[in-house]
Each structure stands twice: as C-alpha cells, then as structure tokens.
Amino acid sequence: MVGSHGHTLAHDALLGSVPINLLHLSKLPVLVMRLRLSPSGEQPLCGNPDCDLLDHVLYATDFSDNAEVAFQYVKHLARGGTRIITLMDVQDVARIGHATPERLAEFDRIDSERLERRKAELTKLGDAKVDCVIAHGHATAELLKKVNQGISLVVLGSQGRGYFKEVFMGSTSHNLARHAPCPVLVVPMPR
C-alpha cells in the first residue's frame, strides 16, 4: 500500500514518484491510497477516512491476460463481502475507431458475453450485486467518469494488450492511479 497525492504526469516525470515507480517495478499488487493534506497543510491524511473499500468495487478489464490475473482479486473481494461490483470494459476508440457499425456491434456482443460469464462467477461467490458496463471512448476518461459515480475501489491489471505503448505513453492503470479520487489496486502480471 502506498499513498499518493495525485501528482501530475509532468511532476512524476521531472521529480520521480514513489507510487508510480512502484507501479512500474513491483512484482506484487500495489494499492494506491489517495491522500489529502491536513487543514494545516503539513501532514497527509487518508483521502476519505469513512471509505469502505468493499462498498462498490470497479473491475476494469480489456480481457488481456493481466486483466484475468486482476479478476482473481475481484473474486476474493466478492467472497469478502463486497456490496456492489461493476465489471467494465471500454471499447477504446483508438483501437476500434475505424470499425463499421456492424463490427462494433459484434465487439459489444462478444465483450458483453465475456462480462456476463464473469458476473456469473462472482454471483456464486457472495452476495454482491454485480453490474456489467460497456463504454465507448478513451479508456482512462471513461473509467474516470465511472469512478466519479461512487466507486470505493478500482481493481485492474498493470498492463493491457499494448505493452510498449503503455511504457512510453502511460497506461490506463497508471493514469487511474494518478487521477482517481478513490483507492486503486493495480495487479501486475506474474513474472
């Protein structure tokens, strides 16, 4: 677990950031907790002391191998008493922007079936209400919209399908760790 003030990308690049470095290098999952400054501005405090991490978990997936590893943690959270779990896939316009409407409908159907299978697994493990969401747009922006609707914890893999792009441009997981107002659990691929 590591605290983060939600620094900007420029600050992270210029000064280095312990949370971001941990996300890049850790072989273990990293829970990034959002910190806020005390009223005096001298001491970091937990972002939301009343936050119940198991209230509403968002599992962000691109159906990569790493997302499947992260899903194992979501299953543990379902067994642990999570109240609501949202399974979310974003049809990223950068990857599918030139697809025909028919092809987009096919992508949605396939991913909807994948989400429904994961939902069935989770409903067998606990009493959580499980929702499935497919969004269209840029992954980080769409996930942040959802996060701002009362999510208490985000769970996702540290790298998706486009490893080299993520290394050079910043991945969705790292962007969420920087900007989400709630804790983010980033699960790396086993090495």
Structural summary, described in words:
- With 191 residues, this protein is α/β, with parallel strands linked by helices.
- The protein contains 8 helices and 8 strands, in the order E-H-H-E-E-E-H-E-H-H-E-H-E-H-H-E.
- Strands 1, 2, 3, 4, 5, 6, 7 and 8 form an 8-stranded mixed sheet that branches.
- Strand 4, helix 3 and strand 5 form a beta-alpha-beta unit.
- Helix 6 packs parallel to helix 8.
- The two termini are 20 Å apart.
- Residues 6-16 and 163-170 have low confidence and may be disordered.
List the helices and strands and how they pair.
Elements: E1 2-4, H1 9-15, H2 18-25, E2 30-37, E3 44-46, E4 56-61, H3 65-79, E5 84-92, H4 93-96, H5 101-123, E6 129-137, H6 139-147, E7 153-157, H7 163-169, H8 172-179, E8 184-187
Helix pairs in contact: 6-8
List descriptors.
eight-stranded mixed sheet; alpha/beta; 42% helix; single chain; globular; 25% strand; 191 residues; 8 helices
Question: What is the structure about, briefly put?
Answer:
It is built from eight helices and eight strands, in the order βααβββαβααβαβααβ.
N- to C-terminal distance = 20 Å
Number of helices: 8
Largest sheet: 8 strands, mixed
Provide the β-strand percentage band. Answer: 15-25%
The gyration radius over C-alpha positions equals: 17 Å
Mean pLDDT comes to 83
Measured as a percent range, the helix fraction is 40-55%
**Structural class, judged by helices and strands?**
alpha/beta
The number of distinct β-strands equals 8
Instruction: List the uncertain runs.
Output: 6-16, 163-170
- Spell the H/E element sequence: EHHEEEHEHHEHEHHE
